[in-house]
Design brief:
The chain is 81% helix and 0% strand. The chain is an all-alpha fold.
Length: 253
């Protein structure tokens, strides 16, 4: 009897959590980022908190004009940290924490971020994910983004100190695109990162990725929003200086 009661109580707890996560996923698909985060938090657990962090990170990625971006980044980091504390082996918690650390670093002086070991920690999280699952396009792509962001912010010195390279960034991004060819997002963010380097050597590659991004049907609100940004960038792409300035502004904040 006690076992039956315990099982029933477990079901009563699990079913609402599952419903919250289903609603959170639907909200995410429709681009209701704050609602997705709220519902995922209600579901609880490492799954819920990691998903909530991911929803806020999605909002950061597609709403560059949001007036409270630093606060959104802090909230995403807190949620991801909590998910990670609940389960340090949870892949999504580690992925979202790495992404949140990247955004937190954008709102800091480069030296402060380095001393606080923010980029170092983000890299460790991403590399551990890629080692465990080299076929995870998000982890692979974010590791590429990490290398190119170090190159953008730190130049040759930053790359030397953090052992980063543009070639590694391009390689990881290229692999991520091959792993998920029907996702427009990696192509857009790859193009953005290349343009923000302000090096003519990568201009044609960036231009090609923007064009390819716009040819892929969007599957949810996030991908549709990414393509809205990609369409804006495509209008500037014939003017390398204008496209570079636009991309750099997006990468800074």
């Amino acid at each position: 009897m006690r076992s039956l009661i315990a099982l029933l109580m477990m079901c009563l707890v699990t079913l609402p959590a599952q419903a919250d996560m289903a609603e959170a996923r639907q909200a995410y698909t429709e681009g209701r980022w704050q609602e997705a985060a709220r519902l995922a938090q209600l579901a609880g657990g490492a799954d819920g908190y990691a998903y909530a962090a991911g929803a806020l990170l999605a909002q950061l990625m597609v709403e560059p004009g949001h007036p409270e971006r630093p606060e959104l980044a802090r909230r995403a980091a807190r949620l991801a940290e909590y998910a990670y504390r609940l389960d340090e082996e949870h892949p999504d918690a580690r992925l979202r924490l790495a992404g949140a650390l990247g955004y937190r670093g954008r709102f800091m002086n480069g030296m402060r971020a380095y001393v606080g070991r923010i980029p170092q920690r983000g890299r460790r999280l991403l590399e551990s994910l890629v080692e465990e699952n080299p076929n995870d396009p998000w982890a692979v792509g974010m590791l590429g983004a990490w290398h190119l962001e170090v190159a953008r912010r730190g130049g040759d010195r930053g790359m030397s100190v953090l052992d980063a390279s543009i070639d590694a960034g391009i390689g990881f991004y290229t692999n991520a695109i091959a792993l998920d060819p029907h996702n427009p997002a990696p192509r857009y963010f790859f193009a953005l990162a290349l343009l923000a380097l302000d090096d003519p050597a990568y201009y044609d590659m960036a231009r090609q990725q923007v064009a390819l991004c716009l040819q892929i049907p969007a599957r949810d609100a996030f991908e549709a929003a990414v393509q809205v940004d990609a369409a804006q960038l495509s209008e500037l792409i014939d003017d390398r200086d204008a496209a570079t300035l636009w991309a750099d502004a997006r990468m800074r904040y």
